[in-house]
Amino acid sequence: ADFTIYGSDEQVQLAADALDAAKERPPTLLEPEDLIRQMSRAKSRLLSPRLAARFAKDPLDAFVAGCYRRYQAALARHNALDFDDMILMTHQLFSEHPDVLEDYQAKWRHVLVDEYQDTDPSQHALIELLTRPSAARTRSLFSVGDGMQAIYGFRNADHTIIERFQHDFPEASVIELATNYRSRQSILDAAFAIIRHSRAVAPMALRAAASPRPGERNLMIFDAKDARDEAEQIARQINDLARQGRKFREIAILYRTRHMSRGFEAALRHARVPYSVRGSTGFYDRAVVRDALAYLRAIANPKDNLS
């Protein structure tokens, strides 16, 4: 390719330059990262700087539109795009040059999209263009998604897109997968009891593939004061189970992101619960943490030559 794709570091620099070049003061404090998020949101809605200025609802929107214009001009001078531009400009290319669109439609006859609930408007519009039927071809689109799993709103994803899927693609056949192979029915029932109150999606009750096991306990939920209290309660619960005869290797703590392991590891160490971290390196086993702890031990005990 004859252009460069700029990542976050370059984006921050260009956004800072765009803010510095503003002749007026922003209505509110705006950091480069804030400006990048605002511009990304505009691009996800297929808004060029000119359209962003036209549809500005308040002084902040108008200020951002001006910075957006300068930011795009700087990208052009550097012969560069950011990741949002790759969708925005591809959509623009296909919209303005039907012959190019037809070439790619012929090249990509079948389009498969996973996690459709996490698409943003620009991605949805691009998919609609690529799969648009014509006299020579029918639409061939296969997508998988679940509105109840929409978690990327902070990245401009719009969960209502999948809710409108049948409206936007009326010829689509919808297959509902209601059997869950991961969880017990008690977990599925608890999850449904929460999400059924949602006004944003139409939840579907799931059924567990596995039959209930003899002596299976009901799901227990506790409300912790904070992350530390949560970890300490879990460590106490594990020790209680161990005293009842449960083996430590039969117990698992599931958490969503790697950084969350630190609180659990600290609580388990304090409660003298043996553990291992699967799928990543434990917090206290990371090289930088081991080095820092070795320095602290050496300071506390100058004779600790091993540290």
Describe this structure in words.
The protein has helices spanning 8-20, 32-44, 49-54, 59-77, 83-96, 98-107, 121-130, 160-163, 165-168, 185-195, 227-243, 261-270, 287-300, and strands at 4-5, 80-81, 111-113, 141-143, 179-180, 207-208. With 307 residues, it is mainly α. Strand 5, helix 10 (185-195) and strand 6 (207-208) form a beta-alpha-beta unit. The protein is extended, with a radius of gyration of 26 Å.
Poorly predicted runs of 5 or more residues: none
**Topology order in helix (H) and strand (E) letters:** EHHHHEHHEHEHHEHEHHH
Annotated CATH architecture of the largest domain = Orthogonal Bundle
Please state the structural category: mainly alpha
Contiguous helical run count: 13
Shape: extended
CA-CA gap between termini: 51 Å
Alpha carbon gyration radius: 26 Å
Question: Mean of the pLDDT scores?
Answer: 91
Count every beta strand, where a strand is a DSSP E run of 2 or more residues.
6
What is the domain tally?
4
CATH domain class name of the largest domain: Mainly Alpha
Q: Describe the biggest sheet?
A: 2 strands, parallel
Q: Please bin the fraction of helical residues.
A: 40-55%
Quick summary:
With 307 residues, the chain is mainly alpha-helical.
Descriptive tags:
two-stranded parallel ribbon; 307 residues; mainly alpha; 13 helices; Rossmann fold; Arc Repressor Mutant, subunit A; 4 domains
